């Protein structure tokens, strides 16, 4: 559907079609891309193995490259080959490792626009956010390159490679960032491409790293098929996981039984509390930023917990902001040479997720939730006749029923829910609905009220009237309750998590036998 606000039908920005991006990949890294597929990388070579699955872009439903899925036996061979790489790499000098990682960052910088364009097509990120994902990876790893010496002083690489299983939403700033820091610390690294998107972007990034001699393995496959190799194999020195609680719980059980080093970042219902508050202009300004990438991030805020007597003032601040959101095709412009469109978000990750959200919204309303805002597709920026099945317009619901997933779980889409409370005890109970979260925020005018209530909110990072994020460089990151298992990361803690220190060392983290804050 084409927006009624556009008299001229929109077109795709010149030079940004998927075919254009694919041809650039073939030219930049012909060893990793074939005419119609990407390859797996293991045993220090690009392998034309695995069954390439069909895939479509969430942007417009058009065909794009799918993951070449390995079977269990091939994955085990890849892990064994990574162990051989690890045993050699751990003896490479720190100076040489720094030089190779730095060279990789230079190559990523050279091709940052292509990496960002792949993110647009594969996972639907608007251009601004796709570039930010690439830049955060590069800038974050440079911080480690510049300051790695004291972080590894007195420490050694692990006994085996680090296995990385991450969600699709931040291929560069989370997954590639982790891979390069882990390698800088002296480990060979393995990554599984997310099933739902990002395979071409990751393939290009890993091709650039492999050229510089970084011992990286990149494989595709289903979690159930590859978990024996990527999680349970004795060769693995550490498992780093970013994803949902169901899958994370299975990984947590496996690594706990094996006594294996692990970093498991899982979802939680991040909440924003409003209590004795009056700075509504500040809240209005921040609301659109909370919808970046359609709230498809582990530190999104999908739940507002609002003091009942402030509800009218809250709505007066919230609704104009949410009505201002810009949604649509991330590459659709009026004229082919126009700048990239400035959007808050594009599609969700796929049409199936969009349907799930639409169904959950409809069910919640049928059981008593009150719709306060529903964006209209007529206001979105679409190409004439394009497939829009992966798009969800922003929705805000008051009091989702307890039976609804929107009541207790993170929607991972542009859906806000609001819960009204009358007492501080209710406020805290509602903000702690998911047994632990990664971030939370409390907006209150009184500093003493914040100081008193914040320690009772079960989130790793808590903002006073401001959103918190995963962080960069020296900012620590972790989670409480079911939102995190294993070692905390960020800053020097990321290096400590993937290296060995004294025999009696207790890493800061959330472990079954202890919880230790930094």
TrEMBL record:
<dbReference type="InterPro" id="IPR016162">
    <property type="entry name" value="Ald_DH_N"/>
</dbReference>
<feature type="domain" description="Aldehyde dehydrogenase">
    <location>
        <begin position="49"/>
        <end position="493"/>
    </location>
</feature>
<dbReference type="GO" id="GO:0016620">
    <property type="term" value="F:oxidoreductase activity, acting on the aldehyde or oxo group of donors, NAD or NADP as acceptor"/>
</dbReference>
<dbReference type="InterPro" id="IPR016161">
    <property type="entry name" value="Ald_DH/histidinol_DH"/>
</dbReference>
<dbReference type="Pfam" id="PF00171">
    <property type="entry name" value="Aldedh"/>
</dbReference>
<protein>
    <submittedName>
        <fullName>Aldehyde dehydrogenase family protein</fullName>
    </submittedName>
</protein>
<dbReference type="InterPro" id="IPR015590">
    <property type="entry name" value="Aldehyde_DH_dom"/>
</dbReference>
<keyword id="KW-0560">Oxidoreductase</keyword>
<dbReference type="InterPro" id="IPR016163">
    <property type="entry name" value="Ald_DH_C"/>
</dbReference>
